[in-house]
Batch of 4 targets.
Target 1
Amino acid sequence: MKKLVTVLVVLLLATSLFAQGGSESKSSAGAVLNFKLAENQPANNPISKGMLMFADLVKEKTNGTVLIDVYLDAQLGNENETIDQVQIGALDFARINTSALASTADEVGVFTLPYIFTSTDHKYKVLDGAIGQGVSDSLKKYNIIGLEYWEAGSRNFYSTKKPIKSVADIKGMKVRVQQSEVAIKMVELLGGAATPMSYGEVYQGLQTGVIDAAENDFVSYYTSGHYEVAKYYSLDAHMAPPAMLLMSQNSWNKLNDSQKQAVREAAKEAALWQRQAMMDFQNESRAKVEEAGCQIFEVDGKAFQKAVSPIYDLYPQYKSIIEQIKAVN
């Protein structure tokens, strides 16, 4: 599928350049551009609220010449499907977790490594600095424009049959993960059976016993309703991969310079709001699930970190950037 997408991207780029005489097409004065944005979270998630804010800001900053319809709850497909659509120009925008994006753009995979960030402050010094900009710029080769990094929380394990209090508790568990090589290898190092599954299938998977556990942040655990069928939540904080707001290069080329600046400004403003809103809602979500009878367990994060540390040796291509990330303080 990825080979097919790559071929389609090349053909579309060639067609675009031929039609434009080697230059970008610009929106004509007074013309209105209508775009679509894909989001897989429900309306009550701060990420979804941030996407709606982004659309409103773009409309305001472009004086109504760029309009964005936001489709929530994975109406336009799961994350991997929408990445493909963005690449070939069939979809204008998508908000994607870097764990999913890494299957297409290897460069972002470094941000999905377990325990790569030491704190939230450290994470955003990396993402908002030269390292994050370099990774974002690298997406152009995939016909994708990286607009901004978004907060996706710290991911923790939650389970149905028994709590995960130690690394040993995961052994033999069927653990849902995103379609991410790093996530799969991480669970395998912990002794679990990694089970890639679309986000929309997780609730039923937990409910029916197809999977024994999953992993996500407090906000997603609450807003998805997963807490209703998986009552044990363990604070191991194994990953904190950011999300990214992406735009198709094909759609980007339709904007004039003023509109491009407006889109970037809107993405930055909405992302800064969303990051804080997400952190605030993490606390609210924790309180809600505890009220519902869920049990929260503090675990020895260092033991989990030690167990998954061999994963770094599997990605020698990240050695240099890992050293750069560690040097950020």
Target 2
Amino acid sequence: MGAQVLVIGLTGGIGTGKTEVTHVLRELGAVVIESDKVAHESYEPGTEAHGLIVSRFGDDVLDEFGSIDRKSLGKIVFSDSARRLELEEIVWPATRKLTLARLENEEKRGTEVVIVEVPKLFESGWDQIADVVWTVESPSGEINKRVEQRSGLGRSETDARVAAQLTREERIAISDRVIENNGTLEELIAQVSRIWESIPKKK
């Protein structure tokens, strides 16, 4: 992006605590773009991505209102890597286009720093739009516990989603900063606050 806005890519595996980190960053005044939410917008009824998903995966992935039922779609793609890639080829370009438009708007507004949270940032090539990358990491036992509590997924489903991502070691090796979410919420808040405050800002 342009020189006026610093784009920080925030990533991490499923259940590592990215949501908590984005909440903390927002409380600190950061502008945060969550790619998952943008992705949901990208395939709302009437969009090109919505039509492509239905044509590729069938009407069974629709809810009673004609919207994409993410749980039904998830059951298909997370157990089949070929189908997952098929979905990603539809959703990622549409999501990226919307995200770039939002970054451009923030740049026009004079925003200095924007956090773009992307679960599979490296796998999708989104690291190319980030100036620096932060990864959130957590012990595997905590990951399983969080995912099961939040999503109601069983261990096999959780393992399938973890297997679809880079490993912790791979993410750490190619990230600029690691946020270790292995303690209390208060410790996480303090850690994220220190990192945020270390970024040079004009105002």
Target 3
Amino acid sequence: MNSLIYLAYGLPDLINEGIYSILSYQRLVQHAPVQILIYTDQPAEFQHVLGEQPHIHYPVVSPEQWQAWRGSRVYLLKIEVLKHAAKHYPGNLLFVDTDTIWQQDPAPVFQAISRGQRYMHVCEGVLAQGNYLSQKIYRHLHGKHWQVNGRTLTIDPDTKLYNSGVLGFPSQDAHALDSIKELGEQLYATYNKHIMEQLAFSMWFQTQAPIAEAAPYVLHYWNLKEIRPVLTQVVQRYASQGLDVLYKQLTQLNIAQLHQQELAYRNLPSWRRTLLKLQGRRWRLPAIDL
């Protein structure tokens, strides 16, 4: 069984992101859709828009279980979700963050996962040579060692960082999740930065085999939190007119283009960004006519 997995816990904004991502998948595939698992504490909000669809499932999770899964690190919540999915929905698992838009049919991804391939969204480069945060993390963690499940892991000059907005692997590999969680906890304890979860996945997966990138199949607009209120307005205004109308209105937001524009600004040298801010020309979400 192929399972496409979403996690929308806590923030209402995640619901509207998830709705758009699911619609983008459904409008793209030309074959029977895969099983979609939506792990959420607000299933009624999804169902209100998406309706009852036989291939969409909402695993039941109690408030107490959510809190236990969340623990002290909300970023590690997805590990517990993946463990649950692997146990109750065995097969080929493909987790995607809600702030994603499908661009190609992921059927080849599921086929590769069935052969044992592991996926993350995109390689963000060698940690030691990456952006400012990556290099800062490398300087702080380089030379340290972590013991996990009888193995010693370390950060070396060749360690690559992958974005965990997508995680794909066969359910029989789920035994690695406890080790990844333990590594993540140790990394957080060493240096409390939000990307330690994706660093833990990157480090552990790299010790097994090369990681494949899902980026050609799905856009991950992680840098565009400003679009969330706009998504909410679009869903509230057009959901009652049907999913086709809603999807059309969502696509007209041109999120992919906005994502690239903000990313180009973000990647400018720091002095250039500072100058633009002083000039009142920092990147801002343009006015969008709904």
Target 4
Amino acid sequence: MLYSVIIPCYRSSATIEHVVDMTREEMARLKKEDVEFILVNDCSPDEGKTIAKLREMAEQHKDVKVIDLAMNSGQHNALMAALRHAKGDVIIGMDDDGQTHPSQLGTLFKALEQGYDLVYGYYPNKKHSWFRNLGSRFNDLTVNLMIKKPKDVRTSSYFLVRKFVRDHAVQYEGSYTYLLGLFMRCTQNIISVPIQHFEREEGESGYTFKQLIRLWSSVIGFSVIPLRVASITGFFFAGVGILAALVVLIRKFVDPTLSMGWPSLMCAIFFFFGLTFMFLGMIGEYLGRMFLGMNKEPQYVIKATYNLSDSQEKEAVK
């Protein structure tokens, strides 16, 4: 059985080789020696240090395959590039900084061997920065509300997934990729298991506020719930407006001298105009995605590959 380890790389020239070496050793200890590593350079802004290290690793090890993206596409799109080139019967998703530690693979495989199609490792005690933890909690809340994730399933960037799930997920061609949403279209046979979260081996998290917002934006692309909420809220406030108008008419009928005043009128105007524009913006977001889909905005652009077969290298753009 072949195992594919997929790792998006971003400013990881100092850590990625050690991560791969540790993973190779752990897989051998688990007697799962038939392994390939697919490393994706997500256009790291480090003067070429990351891609230079990845090329060096590919030259030294035939089991290391490298994809160099021409522009930064985000973690999930980089993972999609790796998934499309993975040949394994089981695909292992990991980070490049050592926090998703290879020593925890045995725990994940035990769960997979129970018959699950998708296994996530989750961290009871996270070692992320407060900013990333805050963003992760907000994203988890969004996922729970919008894509009907099982309540007992907790996700992370450390996962094992079977090939048939991967085969289904890679058919998605939209530019806003969210892997859990794609995986859940194929299977509900999912479990999460507690594992230890390690400190970063070096440096700081490459996650920015912009990237967290893009991830959240990708999540809402897999649900129509925001539109339903907008409709229900719109009906609610329309009803409130009608009731308020009736109250005003009744009070005016009872006391013809009563003046409600401009302040209340202006507040109502600002409130309802703000509400209207908020929902128009939400609808515009969906229409914008339809436009991008029609124009075939790529998930990623492959600049170069190393150690991939000729048939795989032909896929330069997706």
